[in-house]
């Protein structure tokens, strides 16, 4: 807990200086997003420094194993199934449309969304499943690890609050700490005790089950990235409705149960050593 807290403080302290340096080269940036990227870099650097203490000796310990493409494609299939099934039981997420809609934007826009989905899935799955869930699995057991990591995953999505009057936000030496305090406001206001919090928790549970089914990180990356891409590449899907409709939690429970049954049925049949994807 100590290193994690120190990472937030360090990111708040250095982000204004790093922002001024980087923005002078690349142009205007969102300071809030920049703070988040600095925080992620510091957290990953901390994990690298303490990797042996966390039991992370090889890339295989995070989940980067062969096969790659088969679990990745399975994950994309699960993502298509989840989003498609959502249309069936909760048509409100489609918004007010009178015809079958088309994908938004050009090929260039789609590539940007694909890049964003891939980056989000890779970063979050490495942090939440490959590292956090992996450490919990070695420390407290399977079911408690799934519950704990899913809770952290849900809470992390509420750490995105922007400072008040953000358009008039002026950068100074204390800006990082201002963003840090605002980040935790939704958590302190218990906004995570909601349908959205439940859906994010269940999504974390589903991704965790996909991960422990072979300790291979490519399947949860496929699920996570596929959902993000499908939701954000279609103008007719309304993400806020997707995360606020209680029926979505039923969908995630069903898919999590299917994955869990599959894992329990086949997890003991193949104990052969898998090759490390890269070292």
From TrEMBL:
Keyword terms of this UniProt record: Hydrolase, Membrane, Protease, Transmembrane, Transmembrane helix
Gene Ontology molecular function terms on file: peptidase activity
GO BP annotations listed: proteolysis
Recorded superkingdom: Bacteria
Sequence ranges assigned to domain CAAX prenyl protease 2/Lysostaphin resistance protein A-like in this UniProt record: 113-228
TM region(s), chain numbering: 6-22, 34-51, 71-89, 192-212
InterPro entries in UniProt: Rce1/LyrA-like_dom (IPR003675)
PANTHER family from the UniProt entry: MEMBRANE-ASSOCIATED PROTEASE-RELATED, PROTEASE
Record-given protein name: CAAX protease
Organism: Methylacidiphilum kamchatkense Kam1
